TrEMBL record:
Tree of life domain: Bacteria
Name the UniProt record assigns to this protein: QacE family quaternary ammonium compound efflux SMR transporter
Keywords for this protein: Cell membrane, Membrane, Transmembrane, Transmembrane helix, Transport
InterPro entries on file: EmrE-like (IPR037185), Small_drug/metabolite_transptr (IPR000390), Small_multidrug_res (IPR045324)
Pfam family membership, one: Multi_Drug_Res
Subcellular location, principal: membrane
Record flagged with keyword Endoplasmic reticulum: no
GO molecular function, one term: transmembrane transporter activity
Entry's localization field: Cell membrane
Entry annotated with the keyword Ubl conjugation: no
Topology in the lipid bilayer: Multi-pass membrane protein
Residues annotated as transmembrane: 29-50, 57-78, 84-104
């Protein structure tokens, strides 16, 4: 169940990051409400995942994969450019997440 909660926390993290842009500085009511709910959901489900996972593994994967998802969806939704340095950074994050998972023996 820990990995399920972590996956759900990642979805909330991506929604939070993308929603923050849509709030326009928290001046738009419904995007602001949804963004705050996503942030709360992400922290809550991360805390459930960390009942079992090491914080060094869970938090790093949460932020790493959340960052990758934010960049990818940012490119789709907000037409942000994906450059070679961004792609290389994605590869480093993915490699690090895999290494952490292997190191934890999970």
């Amino acid at each position: 169940m820990a990995w399920f909660f972590l996956a759900l926390a990642i979805v909330f993290e991506i929604a939070f990051a993308l929603g923050t842009n849509a709030t326009r500085g928290f001046t738009r009511l419904w995007p602001s409400v949804l963004t705050l709910l996503a942030a709360s959901g992400g922290i809550f489900t991360l805390s459930l995942a960390l009942r079992t996972l090491d914080v060094s593994v869970g938090y790093t994967i949460w932020t790493g994969i959340g960052s990758i998802g934010t960049v990818l969806f940012g490119a789709l939704i907000y037409k942000e450019k994906i450059t070679l340095p961004k792609l290389l950074s994605f590869a480093a994050i993915i490699a690090g997440a895999i290494t952490l998972k292997l190191a934890a023996g999970l």
